[in-house]
């Protein structure tokens, strides 16, 4: 069993979480989007080996958050709320 750090509830069993997708895969805006761009959004992923940032949901509290983890050794380096994860201007 692995513990995932929910920024709202603290460390919890990994079975309480559901993968939401890679961070930064923003939905295209507008009705005139090309079929190729829409297909890229739906199906193309970076799938990095090593450090990555992903969106997860803690199914117990229902909150979405960003988690940084290593896909090779399965270590989690941290998690932040989505408002903290957004770049500030």
From TrEMBL:
<protein>
    <submittedName>
        <fullName>Sarcosine oxidase subunit delta</fullName>
    </submittedName>
</protein>
<dbReference type="InterPro" id="IPR006279">
    <property type="entry name" value="SoxD"/>
</dbReference>
<dbReference type="InterPro" id="IPR038561">
    <property type="entry name" value="SoxD_sf"/>
</dbReference>
<dbReference type="Pfam" id="PF04267">
    <property type="entry name" value="SoxD"/>
</dbReference>
């Amino acid at each position: 069993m692995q513990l995932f750090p929910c920024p709202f509830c603290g460390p919890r069993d990994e079975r309480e979480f559901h993968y939401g997708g890679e961070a930064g895969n923003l939905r295209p805006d507008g009705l005139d989007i090309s079929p190729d761009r829409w297909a890229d959004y739906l199906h193309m992923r970076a799938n990095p080996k090593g450090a990555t940032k992903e969106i997860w949901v803690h199914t117990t509290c229902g909150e979405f958050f960003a988690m940084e983890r290593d896909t090779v050794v399965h270590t989690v380096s941290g998690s932040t709320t989505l408002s903290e994860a957004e770049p500030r201007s």
